[in-house]
Every structure is written in structure tokens, then in C-alpha cells.
Automatic annotation (TrEMBL):
Presence of the UniProt keyword Signal in the record: yes
Transmembrane segments: none
Low complexity composition bias: residue spans: 270-279
Protein name as catalogued: GH26 domain-containing protein
Amino acid sequence: MTMALAVLAAGPAWHVAAAPPSAPLIGINYFAGWWTGPGDKWKEPWNTSVDWRPLYPGRVPLIGQYTTEQSTMDGDIVAASSAGVDFFSILWYDNYPCGHRAPGSGHLNDGLSLFMSSKEAHRMQFMIEWCIALPLFGVHSDMEWQRMVRDDWLPAFKHQSYLRVGGALVFKVHSGPAFKVNSSASDAVVSARLDFLRRLVRNAGLGEMIIGAGSTITDTSDPAEWWGFSYNFTNDYAGVLHDDPKWAGRVLPWRNESAFVREWRRKQARAAAQANPRRTWTRQKGTTRQRRK
Ligand SMILES: *[C@@H]1O[C@H](CO)[C@@H](O)[C@H](O)[C@H]1NC(C)=O
Ligand SMILES: *[C@@H]1O[C@H](CO)[C@@H](O)[C@H](O)[C@H]1NC(C)=O
Ligand SMILES: *[C@@H]1O[C@H](CO)[C@@H](O)[C@H](O)[C@H]1NC(C)=O
Ligand SMILES: *[C@@H]1O[C@H](CO)[C@@H](O)[C@H](O)[C@H]1NC(C)=O
């Protein structure tokens, strides 16, 4: 699992049947990037012949080093749930049509299947964070989108531990701006895809959905205006500094990373308080403003 923390607070905007929880739910992103063989994340990103475990022995998990193994997932669930974590937001990657868009990348989705098959699954909840990561992991077509919804996500939504808030299933698009770019920068395409998802879930008798989207912490564009869809929640990711070869082998203090996050959260707040004509990076001719809140 990764250290990124996601907090879903129960807000008054959720109009669903059951009462929202009385306390914030605490979640952690689950990234299943740890296998043996090409593409595994035990190697330095900038030099994949170097295994970084001897450089940072204190960061090698005792529970299990490989997220391709059921015992690792079982241990992760027990550790997280007993420390007060309510859910994993499991990163899921579109590997269609070949099953492996990058070396070993089929293993990335083991996180979802191993959670679902875990005998410990009753201890906590999980949700899918569809990890659109361009240029490698976008969706090629509407047909491929529909296939993911039907064959991969719908079975997960039926699992008894799938996260519901106020009765609604929670789902996140990892990057709202990337999804829009990958949908030919068309709000209509983004909406058609997400509306299809809602409709299929509703027709399957699974109820309503809370659909959110994220963006990098340094993106200060206005989600309501430029991300192409009226998402139920938006948030940030990748608030990590110095992912850089020159820091290899050096353990920076955690406060160093949190200083970076605090700095960008201040910038996010300032940007949100301002009128937004200067925020243009996903802007395209013909985008509608009707979704602006
Ligand atoms: C989520 O957003 C949709 C579309 O804007 C809206 O119809 C729905 O009521 C929202 N769901 C919740 C739980 O707020
Ligand atoms: C990668 O690391 C290996 C082993 O330390 C080293 O021999 C090689 O020169 C490195 N390659 C690059 C491109 O830095
Ligand atoms: C979306 O992503 C896929 C795969 O990453 C890519 O092949 C395709 O060209 C992208 N489509 C658009 C419109 O950007
Ligand atoms: C984090 O530490 C590095 C190395 O000391 C420094 O260059 C950088 O400015 C620090 N960043 C923050 C946000 O404190």
C-alpha cells in the first residue's frame, strides 16, 4: 500500500437515502506495484537495474513484499483495519486490449482481485480509483470503457465490502483533467461515459454512485469549470517532493514532504477563492460553462 491518505468527509451535499457517517472515513490508496520481474517498483524508476531495497531497508514491509500474493493483501487489511483505516482506494489500470500495456502491468490490478478474494475482506471497505495515467493508461474507446464497467467494476461494486457512503457506491477517476483530455477534450464524451457507468449500476440494482475525480496537487484549475463533469467530490494527489535521482539513498524527513503539501494546499485555497479566467490548461474551444457551480 502507499502512504497517501484520503479523507472523505460526510458533507451536506450528499442527498441519498441512508444517513451519512457521523465521523470522517479514513482511506489509503492501495497501489499493487510490487512483484518480481520486469516493471516492478522495487527498482529505481530512473535505473531499473537497481533494486532500492538495500538503500532503504527500513521501508521494506514486514507483512509481505509482493502485492501479487494473497497473504500480503490479507496482512495489509489486518494491519490497516486494526489501525483505524476504513477503506482502501485501490488503483485500477486499463490494460485492454493486450493485458499488459507496460512490462508486468497486468499485476497492477491484483490489488482489486486479492482484496475481493481475501478472507479478511470483512474487516474494512474498498473502492476503485480508476487510475487513468497518460500517456500509457488511458481508455481507447467507448467500447473499452463499457467493457471495464461491465467486466471489471460491476462485479467489484457487488462485493459486500465495497465502500458506500450514505448508501451510495463511491468511485473515483484518478485524474479528472486527464480523463477529459483522453475523451478528446469533450465534456459530452466525459459525461456520456460517466452517465453510462451510473446507469448500468442503477440498472443492476446497485443504487446510486458518488463519483469523484482528482488532479495533481500543483493543478489549480477549477474542477467545476474545466474538468468536464459535475463530480460529487474533487481532490489532489501526488503531493510528494523530490522524486529525483539526486536524492537516491537519502531519507528526507517526513516534515519535508508535509511542508510541500501545505504550501500547495495554500495555493489551492487561494486559486479557489479567485475568479478563474487565468486557469486554462484543460480549456478548449466549445467547453460549456453550464456546469460551473
Ligand atoms: C452526485 O452528482 C450527481 C450529478 O451531479 C447528482 O445527481 C447526485 O445527486 C450526486 N450524488 C450525491 C450523493 O450527492
Ligand atoms: C544503472 O545501475 C547500474 C548498477 O549500479 C550501473 O552499472 C549503470 O551504469 C546504471 N545505469 C545508468 C544509466 O545510470
Ligand atoms: C486515450 O488514451 C489511449 C491509451 O493511453 C490513447 O491510445 C488514446 O489515443 C487516447 N485518446 C485521446 C483522445 O487522447
Ligand atoms: C526539502 O528538503 C530539500 C533538501 O534539503 C530542500 O531542497 C527542499 O527545499 C525542502 N522542501 C521543503 C518544502 O521543505
